[in-house]
Design a protein that fits this description.
The structure is a homodimer of 156-residue chains.
Chain A: H1 11-19, H2 24-33, H3 38-45, H4 49-61, E1 65-71, E2 76-81, H5 83-86, H6 89-102, E3 111-115, E4 123-127, E5 139-143
Antiparallel strand pairs in A: 1-2
Helix pairs in contact in A: 2-3
Chain A binds a DNA duplex (30 and 30 nucleotides) through residues 22, 37-39, 48-54, 71, 73-77.
Chain lengths: 156, 156
DNA sequence: CGCAGTGAGTTGGAAAATCAAACTGAGTCG
DNA sequence: CGACTCAGTTTGATTTTCCAACTCACTGCG
């Protein structure tokens, strides 16, 4: 009885519950750029210090970031991405490309990422099975949990 | 004057400012799945109704979603992704794959997306120039704005 | 007609998160 | 010693979120 809130079970939701809080992905961006110190993170993300401390704790606990000491004696740490953290970087790249494309008319992209091949990265999401692009019209969703359809739950 | 907070200028930040608020990407997920009606969105995302209304307004204003009437007289609408919205779907797919990989040990993925090629989508982010995978170790960042380095601003 | 029901929100107030600035504490530098 | 750095923590004030209840337009049903 009483279904308080049971939204669709989904790894997108799970992922966002972890890294979707305000500033978390900006922290990851900075950490991937090599700016892993607390005060750098404050400056570069704009996060309030207390919020940042909270986010960092969560991300470390979840295994997305790890703390690395860069100085004993005046004990100092630096945050770095774990393997899991690094694997989120393609998500950031794709999001950046989307922002560049849709949130800026002109060519004033504030940051360009260069790929090992020598070109500016323009990420394309592809299907690992066929190599083709992952586009909406080529996708069909198959919810595995009972009761969760894609055309509308209809509940009954 | 007084520089209150000027974080790094970046399209990731801009994109997140728009679609990074709680529930926004879940709304987009549902809308891409074809569940674009208000009450469906409430049920499937778990968002409070007032928050959902606020998010929908923003996403429509920003051109990520559009309102489509599916009934005159008892005026009823449905939200659908615009082209810009659809182009965010690959981001969702990549995020879902990350969640499947890192937030679940077993193979109980709650939703499987099938690609036109017949296989379950396992998205890979590639460089459009060379076709190679976009991985951290192959990337070099080039901030375009002055004062924003990748090894630490140093401010001075 | 009268009245329960649906869809798409809006309203009101309590609870939680965010924000800014000041503070702490270990330790170094001059 | 006194000033400074870094990595946070504390303290209140401000904003958001959350939830339940309510509205409004309209559609059946009997």
């Amino acid at each position: 009885m009483a279904a308080p809130r049971n939204p669709r079970p989904c790894s997108i939701a799970d992922a966002l519950a972890l890294v979707g809080e305000k500033y978390s992905l900006l922290v990851l961006r900075e950490v991937c750029l090599g700016n892993g110190r607390f005060d750098q993170l404050v400056r570069n993300t704009g996060a309030p210090r207390d919020v940042l401390a909270t986010r960092l704790r969560r991300l470390v606990d979840a295994g997305v970031l790890a703390k690395h000491p860069y100085s004993e004696r005046p004990q100092r740490f630096e945050y770095r991405p774990t393997q899991a953290g690094l694997e989120l970087e393609p998500v950031l790249m794709t999001l950046m490309a989307w922002g560049d494309r849709h949130l800026r008319e002109d060519r004033d992209r504030p940051m360009v990422i260069e790929h090992a091949c020598g070109h500016a990265v323009v990420p394309v999401v592809t299907c690992s099975a066929c190599g083709g692009q992952v586009r909406h019209e080529d996708l069909t969703a198959h919810p595995q949990a009972p009761g969760w359809t894609v055309t509308g739950p209809t509940t009954a």
